């Protein structure tokens, strides 16, 4: 759960909060990284402890996707789990794989906010209540050039439309922003490869000499799967491996520089820039851009 003053937000999948990593706070903004899994629906949870009127807005990959009004004797918490298609129907939010293409027509498309869930809390004034339904026009994900955001792996899509209880809508005027919360989502393998999440648990130790290997369980993994059963995970696996390879190369470069004797900086030569540890990896030919 991200908390800033009187305001909190978190993301759940199957009613379980996602683990948050590398949380950073700057002024009225707080940000973290969370793991995403393709095909999973998710909900953005909002909470406020204030007597102010607090309209809140949720943006997915830079697109407005709904929100709620907190405070003023209203509900202290709100769930944003999908985009409404009418006052009685909704399409749930869902993590989905990037639709990659090698068509250069998509190379200059702006994808800077893909992989980001943003929540904005405002102080506001209610101008009208019980208004007619108005669509948010949340656009379905488009194609992404394979050289643009390959290390992101996922984007937000929409699930199958379902019927919900009739919703009431209000119109607010925003006065000033109170808090900003950002969840940057990536497949867990990419987070691990970039040092943002702890390594995966180690497999069981190999049996010692003379010990018998345990018999494989009945549900042991069958490696003779058809090609179309495994192709869906190839893009995520390649992105994670590339990110891990870049991290190892950078580590070896730093170790090589430290171990070379007699290396010094000549007068007048530019200083060597030190790498910074952050949630974002610097751009280079061997480093994967998480943004």
UniProtKB/TrEMBL annotation:
Source species of the chain: Dendrothele bispora (strain CBS 962.96)
Per the record, the domain of life is Eukaryota
* Signal sequence segment: none
- UniProt xrefs under Pfam families: DUF7918
Residues forming the DUF7918 domain are: 11-198
The UniProt annotation puts the region (Disordered) at 195-219, 250-291
According to UniProt, the name of this protein is DUF7918 domain-containing protein
Q: Where is the composition biased (Polar residues)?
A: 280-291
């Amino acid at each position: 759960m991200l908390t800033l003053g009187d305001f909190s937000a978190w993301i759940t999948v199957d009613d379980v909060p996602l683990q948050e990593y590398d949380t950073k706070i700057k002024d009225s903004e707080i940000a973290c990284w969370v793991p995403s899994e393709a095909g999973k629906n998710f909900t953005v949870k909002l909470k406020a402890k204030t007597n102010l009127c607090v309209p809140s807005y949720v943006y997915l990959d830079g697109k407005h996707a709904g929100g709620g009004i907190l405070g003023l004797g209203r509900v202290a918490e709100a769930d944003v789990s999908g985009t409404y298609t009418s006052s009685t129907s909704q399409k749930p939010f869902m993590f989905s794989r990037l639709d990659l293409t090698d068509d250069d027509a998509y190379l200059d498309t702006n994808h800077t906010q893909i992989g980001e869930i943003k929540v904005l809390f405002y102080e506001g004034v209610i101008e009208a209540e019980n208004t007619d339904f108005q669509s948010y026009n949340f656009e379905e994900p488009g194609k992404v050039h394979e050289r643009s955001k390959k290390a992101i792996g996922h984007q937000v899509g929409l699930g199958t439309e379902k019927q919900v209880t009739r919703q009431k809508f209000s119109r607010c005027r925003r006065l000033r922003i109170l808090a900003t919360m950002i969840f940057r989502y990536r497949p867990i393998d990419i987070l691990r490869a970039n040092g943002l999440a702890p390594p995966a648990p180690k497999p069981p130790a190999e049996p010692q000499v003379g010990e018998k290997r345990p018999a494989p369980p009945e549900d042991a993994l069958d490696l003779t799967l058809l090609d179309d059963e495994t192709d869906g995970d190839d893009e995520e696996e390649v992105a994670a491996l590339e990110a891990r390879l870049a991290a190892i190369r950078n580590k070896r470069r730093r170790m090589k520089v430290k171990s070379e004797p007699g290396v010094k900086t000549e007068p007048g030569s530019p200083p060597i820039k030190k790498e910074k540890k952050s949630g974002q990896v610097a751009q280079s030919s061997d480093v994967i851009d998480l943004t």
